[in-house]
Protein 1
Amino acid sequence: MFSLMRNFPPWIKTVLVVGGGVLIGISTYGLLIYYERRHQGFQDEGFEDTSKVEEQPERKVIVLGLDGVGKSTFIANLSKVDNVQNDIKPTEGFHIMSVNTQGTAINIWEIGGAETYRNYWGNFLQDTDALVFVVDSNDSKRLPQAYDEFKKLIADDRLKDVPILVLANKQDIPECLSCKQIEDALNLKSISPKLHKIKVLPLQISTNKPQHQSLKIAEDTMIQFAFTK
């Protein structure tokens, strides 16, 4: 597997080698294969003249947030009308899924939100077209921590001009914080619209119920933002 590393960017090698046991197994192998395919293009697909083969356009969306806020549940239920899944295990390391729309592959990268994995968030920011930041609306005690992590992200030059979608998740729980309260907690009004296009949306994913309208709106907005930059 490590013979594949010769063509990867330095930050990929850093994550794989320095990260030790953090990003391992299937997830690590998936990242290796992803970059190997991007490097090789279509040269192994049997085409005689690979220079004439056009790769499918791609956009990169990165989904971040503290652990337990519902990132994995959100991604697992994209494009689902019913049979909503709500028993998703937290992501260890990272997870990649792709949604094809408008002839473009929207590659959605979810990075684990536990402290161990947050240390590696910066390694995944390059070439991001849209950022989705998920917040638990029912956990006001951790909002300061979410704000600290959010500040680090928007201060990173690699996210310059990247549109940001903030999802106020778990809106179905009584007495949860409103979108306005989440907006205030993250101090979003202090961010110039010239630097980032930002939108806050409510999100509700209920167990054993048809897809809530907020999930579809969040998905559509995420895809729209991926084409904004």
Protein 2
Amino acid sequence: MEYHHPPVIIPTTPNNVLAHQAQDWKIMQVINNKIRDDIVKKYAQYTKRVNGEMIKVMYEWFERGDRRSRQQSSYGSQRDKHFRLEINKDTFDRYNDRLPHVRRLTFEQFCELLAPIITGQYNDYQLRKTFEKLDSDSDGYLNQQEIENLLLVVGRAESNYKVYDMISQLSSRGKLNFEEFKRFINDGFARELLMPSYDNEYGSR
């Protein structure tokens, strides 16, 4: 099957809408949160299936910052935030034994498990379920190795130091309990680790 790359969220104006999805990709969910005229957050999930089986999923996140604050800032430019993560079933099948509780899930169930981490929209029940699946030794914490294993399963690679540094900013014990895991998501650490960033500078516009 010919591979068609899915659309991207183009950060130009707050009134942007998602481009029409390319052939073979199906858009599953869109969140378009217009906080005010100059602050917009967009999230989208696309899937690709062959013979009914999901083989790829792509998440996109775009956040336009507060441009009005730029006029009061001494900084010369601001940056929009644009993240993208594409996960392949082949990669999931190859490495899911690194996360024993995840190994029992289908690829589609695993992708559903990731959604609260990426979107930051969840209730405690949903997030607790995700936390427990990632907690391989069931000790009530996510340690550095468990987070690095998650990165491996989704096909991402980050330095050990970067993962360690992010954990250290939230916990002095070197591992995250459930409440610290919430901060890990809400403060954007999880998205930064999981989703490559495409920064878009607009300070000169």
Protein 3
Amino acid sequence: MSIVLILQNILNIIILFLIIYISLHIFFSNYELLKIFYSFFLGCLFVYFLKKKFFQIFNINIEEILGFDFYTSLLTFIFLFPIIIKAPYLRFHLQNFSKLWNKNKTFAMGSKNTQMNIIDSVLTLSKMKIGALITIEKYNSLEQYAQNSILIDGTVTKELLISIFLPNSPLHDGAVIVRGDKIISAGAYFILSEKQNFEKKTGSRHRAALGISENSDSMSIIVSEETGNISIAFEGIILKMNDKDQIQEYLSMFMI
């Protein structure tokens, strides 16, 4: 065996080791989008070597035997399979990308009076242990959700917010959408977050609030009907609020 052939075999082993190492590193990481693209790369590599080596080893043209373009069909399957399996992650990244194109040039934030009405209403609902979800629009329009709910177009007041979330109200299960000083709609339903790190007792309101915060730059205030706890969801995270001052601090920072 010549030195060139030995070196070539050693190089092939090193390349194979690197591919396996990189593959394991990527597939055990949390970068789902990278996994999808790397799956495409490995699939194309697999088809290339299969087409090249299969004919060399067996001297058989598999496409002539099967009667159709086997390798093109295999590439199509390799391309579609990760997309189908990872569809939720692709949708998430596409929605994040769409935020850049879905911004209002101007937006109206609520007045100080609106902030206080929202805070007073959630504190009252918390004491009564009545569940609530109030979502405040910022740059990204929530019009698509508003149009599929009950249009209100009323001024934000403590009394109106409480009346919407009372258990006997037909709108109490959905979210209220606030734009500026107006409640534009009630009974809105958002896509639930697909994150898996929730406690088992986490309700649909919290998942909905987290979901809309992942897909827009809105802020949501959630009142738990089980515990009366108040939380705020924005930028894909949920924070538990301890008192009125903390709620006001976050709301003031958001509504500027």
